[in-house]
Amino acid sequence: xxxxxxxxxxxxxxxxxxxxxxxxxxxxxxxxxxxxxxxxxxxxxxxxxxxxxxxxxxxxxxxxxxxxxxxxxxxxxxxxxxxxxxxxxxxxxxxxxxxxxxxxxxxxxxxxxxxxxxxxxxxxxxxxxxxxxxxxxxxxxxxxxxxxxxxxxxxxxxxxxxxxxxxxxxxxxxxxxxxxxxxxxxxxxxxxxxxxxxxxxxxxxxxxxxxxxxxxxxxxxxxxxxxxxxxxxxxxxxxxxxxxxxxxxxxxxxxxxxxxxxxxxxxxxxxxxxxxxxxxxxxxxxxxxxxxxx
Length: 294
Known about the structure:
By secondary structure, the protein is an all-alpha fold. It folds into two domains: 2-41; 74-289, MetI-like fold (Orthogonal Bundle), CATH 1.10.3720.10. Helices cover 75% and strands 0% of the residues. Helix 1 crosses helix 14 and helix 11 packs across helix 15 (280-289). The protein is flat, with a radius of gyration of 27 Å.
């Protein structure tokens, strides 16, 4: 009897060791696959970054120089001085930050009305709001331009900023889905204590929706930071240009000078990359938690 018990215990220990080895091997394999995929995605950015520090002799050397042996900052100096980078940066920041504030204000209020308030036709209007995402941008481009021309907004920042107060259907949908995951009992308790809808929205819903709000803000900032078509259409004075237009202007004069081009691309993309890494935890929470509850 004792022998059988010892054999059973030894077998269970062996099974436990085998299970631990299997889990460790699976974990290592998963990390290797993720590292490989991450390396593939990072390769173009590494080439962009390394090229921006290369001297002209290393750009077309054979064999290819993956790690620069001689580093230079002349490419960055040329990229930052050819165009008024400070002015273009200030213009881009103004447009992007204005869009973030306007989008958060408008979309959060509309999403609150679609998710926490009961009113006739709510679901129908929500479907209509989502249906506007099916309209291609070229369909609304000409009518919108005519409206802005009638308002004498062409050549100013107004067409790129104030329309954000009208909301964005995708962000309305994202925030609505997140608001629906917040227990209704919290809002009901606040109403029993005498709080109005705006106070419930400001003091309860918004603080609990930080991940979704940060996700909306990050998407909005990136869209406006990288936007090229709208500034190209509505901005006519070079003093109002954004970084995207400045990059296009730089490419027009330096299309064959890859070092300065790569340096200009790094300077333009670096703020967005830094912003994403600073907000990545809240961004991932906002994406994964949205839509848990219908």
